[in-house]
Every structure is written in C-alpha cells, then in structure tokens.
Amino acid sequence: MRNTPHNLVGAMVRRAAIGVCLACGAVVGVGGVLAQAGQPAPQEQRIANVVVFLVDTLRADHLKCYDYFRDTSPNVDAFAAEGVLFERAFAHSSWTRTSVASLFTSLHPASHSCQDEPDSMSDKLVTMAEVFKANGYLTGGFSSNISISEKFNCQQGFDFFHYFEREPFFKANPGRKDPGYVPIEGMIPDTLKWIDAAGDKPFFLYFHCTDPHYQYIPPDEYALWSKNNPFNSYDGEIRYMDAFFGKFISHLRDKGKLDSTLIIFTADHGEEWGDHGGASHGYTLYNEVLHVPLIFRHPKFKPLRRPELVRQIDVLPTLIELCGLKAADATIQGRTLAPLLAGQPDPQPDQQFIQADLLYPAKMEGYSYECDGWKAVYTIRNKPMSQRIRPKENTLEVFYTRQDAAERINIQVIDPARGNALLEVLNNRRAAFAQQLKIEALKGQIDPETLQKLKSLGYAQ
C-alpha cells in the first residue's frame, strides 16, 4: 500500500492510544505548583549565582547539539556536553514579549495578559528578578531588544537594568551595518563588568541578546556560509552569537565563578524558514517557532539529555527549589524540573503539555495546545506577511507530532471529534488560567521613538 497522506493519517490514528491526549487534558485545573517558601539547600550544595542567557529568535534545531547539519554552535555544544539538555522545550508564544513574560513569571499568557504590541507587564506580576532580589541576590538585566526594556515595564525586580541603545555602539563602530539592535559584542563588556563588580555577593543575571533576530547581518568572519540568502546569514548570526557566548563562559571560568554559577541557556522563540510557507515569527504557532533550546549547567548535575516536554514556565519553580528561595507572593503555574536535572523520573507527568497564545492582531490571533504527541492549533485569524501563506480564520488544525514532527498532515480532516475535544481542553485551560489571577496588561500609547525601534525589528508595520 502506498503511503498516501490519507493512509499515513490512518496509521497515526491507529497507532496512537485512543484518547491519550484527552486523558492528559481531562483535569482542567491550572496545574503546576503554587508558590511556597523554599527549603534552604545544604551549604555544600548551595548555588551561589544564577544566569539566564537568552538568545532571541534561536531555533533549537539550528544548533549542532540539537542535531543540526551545520557547525553553527561549537561553544554552545561544549556547554551542552557538560549540562542537562532538554530535547523538547517549548515557548508559550512565537513573539518576544509574551514568551519572556511567561519565563519571568511562570504564568501562562492567559494569566499575565502581556500579549499585544503595546502591552506592558503589569506591576501586579511577581517576576523572577523580584523573587531573587527578595532573597538577597544582586539582580542585573541586560537587553538589546526594545521589547524587553523599561518601555514595557520589564525592569521589575532588577537592581540594575540596561537596555542597549543603538546610537552609542554604531557611533563607535561606524563601519558596522545596523541590524536594528546592538549586537552581542556590544553587550558582553558591560555585562562582565557588572558580574565582576558583584564580587562575592550572590547574583542573578538575565542576559537577552537579539542576534540572530532579523536583520541577519553577521560580521564577515562569521559568515561561514554564503550571504546569498537570509537562511545562510541567520546561521552565520548563530555562529557569531556562539563565539561571544564562549567568551562569556571563559570569563566566568577565569574569574573562578563558573562552577558556583547555574547557567540556563535558552531562547524566547524560533524562526520560520518556509516550514509552513512563510518566514519570520509571530505569524503562526507551529513548532518551528515554539521549539526552543533549554540547557542547564552546574557541577552538581551530570550531563544528560531529557526527552520530556518542558516549558518556559517551568524555569522559575526549578530555580526556587534549586536555590532554596522563598517565593514570596509569586503564583507559580509551572513545575520544578529539579528531579529531571538529577536524572530522576518526572514526578508531575500531567504537566507535560504546552499551551501557547498569540494575540497580536497585527499578525495573528490564536492558540495551540500539545500533549502526548497530539497538537491542536486554533487560528482565530491571521495576517500573513507573505502571499504564499493562505490566510486562516476560525481554523482548527490537529497534528500527531510523534509521527508528523513537521506538522504537515491535518488530522482534523478525518477525525474532527478528536480535534473538537482538544479545542475544548484548550479553551477550558485558558479560561482557568485567566480566572486564577485576572491580571490585565498595562496599556499605553507607544511613543514615536519606541515605535521606530519596534519597526526596525519587524514588530510594527
């Protein structure tokens, strides 16, 4: 029998356990763990410092350690070889501010409500930096993406927060082409100075570089693949970022701080390269824009690769447990990954689901939900950047990602009952998440200067 799309779909449906994902979503509660006072870790296991190193727009599958065919990431690969790599880590949105708000707060987008272009993070939210500051850590934040800056109230909890303005860097480097943000080499020196100034005090650092975000303009020495198309230049940007990630790690090692520092390497979302007919991000909720790298490194953890589905909202509760923090007033919707880091089974397998939102009317409004290999994508409406993408409105797609990782075969066509049940789970969960906090994002008028910076990154038309 030939493997026609219809036969492949039939095989997927037959091989999958009936209702396996529906059972996963049968309990409609918000899940996760609620914040409680952390238990102090033994002194010999105490983690002194924490770094969250986030690379904007980095697809997991464009790193060699995630089985990419190009050598884009020798330093990240070496880092991963010493750490715990999560093979199936996912963002909660395909654009920066929504996904980072979930990382900062351990809240699903329906709870933190920071979704649209003008939305700022509410003062009522308790952020990762606020938790660390309340526990006596120095807190520093460094970002070259205007979307993660004081303009959108992202500085909450940081003793020091620095958004890198482009003018000083490009004035000092007149020959460099401006990609719309300060490249990583302009961020690293100030960041390392802040780490050095911390001395022996425990610190929490959030570092957000924007390479390899559009525009893709790697320096010539990192353009290892021809510049004749954006795809090659994107990979060159990753190789460029990787070189400075290596310098960052080397500095910590030289200063004797590497082994006392827990480092988490991750991204806010990926990038589409024609996977579903378009490019960029923020227009869809397929896994090429949701699957992100997530790697933890600390000497207390043996090198591992973990296959479980994990999420951005799981990072904060993990840090609370590992560092023995008091979570204060934070509401935690994720689960701790500490058992997985220690090589143990997942004590909360019911939390192996990912719910993502994209409520950015200028690009797309919709939701997605994946659990146990089944994924539903519900598009309220989208405004594609390319005529090659067919506009969708009130469209439900269902994929069995265990056998259709590329999300090509829409099972909703032949099994609408499954899709409708998944959509019901999705809607019920979103309602529960929204009901738990009832927090609204801060709405405001974007000033012309900020709007121009957003336009330079492709966020505004």
Query: How much helical structure, as a percent, in the residues?
Result: 25-40%
Task: Domain count, please report it.
Answer: 2
CATH homologous superfamily label of the largest domain: Alkaline Phosphatase, subunit A
List segments where confidence is low: pLDDT < 50 over at least 5 consecutive residues.
1-44
Choose one word for the global shape: globular
How would you sum up the major sheet? Answer: 9 strands, mixed
What is the H/E order? HHEHEHHHEEHHEHEEEEEEHHEEEEHH
CATH architecture of the largest domain: 3-Layer(aba) Sandwich
Estimate what percentage of residues fall within beta strands. Answer: 15-25%
Mean pLDDT, rounded to whole units? 88
Query: CATH class of the largest domain, anyone?
Result: Alpha Beta
Distance between the termini: 49 Å
The total of beta strands comes to 15
Number of helices: 13
| CATH topology grouping of the largest domain | Alkaline Phosphatase, subunit A
Structural class: alpha/beta
Rg to the nearest angstrom? Answer: 21 Å
What does this structure look like?
The protein is of the alpha/beta class. It folds into two domains: 48-348, Alkaline Phosphatase, subunit A (3-Layer(aba) Sandwich), CATH 3.40.720; 355-448, 2-Layer Sandwich (Arylsulfatase, C-terminal domain). 28% of the residues lie in helices and 19% in strands. The strands form three sheets. Strands 1, 2, 3, 4, 5, 6, 9, 10 and 11 form a nine-stranded mixed sheet that branches.
